[in-house]
Each structure stands twice: as C-alpha cells, then as structure tokens.
Amino acid sequence: xxxxxxxxxxxxxxxxxxxxxxxxxxxxxxxxxxxxxxxxxxxxxxxxxxxxxxxxxxxxxxxxxxxxxxxxxxxxxxxxxxxxxxxxxxxxxxxxxxxxxxxxxxxxxxxxxxxxxxxxxxxxxx
Length: 126
Hints:
The chain is mostly helical. It is built from five helices and no strands.
C-alpha cells in the first residue's frame, strides 16, 4: 500500500485546491485581487492570477500526477502565505491551511507515485 500513498495524497490535496480554485475562478480575478489587496498584498492582480492558476491548473496537474513536486511546492508557498498574511493577523483558525501545507510537503517528498500520468513518460533506470 505504501507505494500508492502519493495517489491518495494527490486526490486529497489536489481535490481541495481545485474546489477552492474553481470558486476563485468563478468570482473572477477582480474579486480575488480585491481580497488580496484588502490583506495588503502588493501587486494584487498579478498574485490573483498566480493564485487562481496554482489552485486550478496546479490542482488538476496534481490530481493527474503531472509535475506533482513542482506544483506541490507552489501550493505550499500559497498555504504559508495564507497562514501568515490572512489567518494569523485576522486571529482566524488555520487548520485547513496547515493540513494542506502538510499535504503539499508530503507530495514534495513522495512525488507523482506509480498511479500517475507522469509514470508513463518516465524512463526506466539504466
């Protein structure tokens, strides 16, 4: 079962990020940028595009097992930003963000796993 741990972690982390990313996508870049601006993020529109991209495209790639480590690093950075810039200053609970951060770090360690699209493109060791 251990070799397939990455698959289940990809489903959990990628699925949660995708749900949140679709919500941001539907509300639009302007609404996401306004939220970021209200929390004193510089270049809010640029970060809104990055955030929506990580939470949608990145989530889909993680779900499928494509460039999992790279997207998991981006997701980890997003969660650190969410905790430090939004949750802690607002004295809000950050359990979800902490779990997603832990999941992202786990995916950086595990990689794509054997049940991924990327495994079809990997060369066997010579």
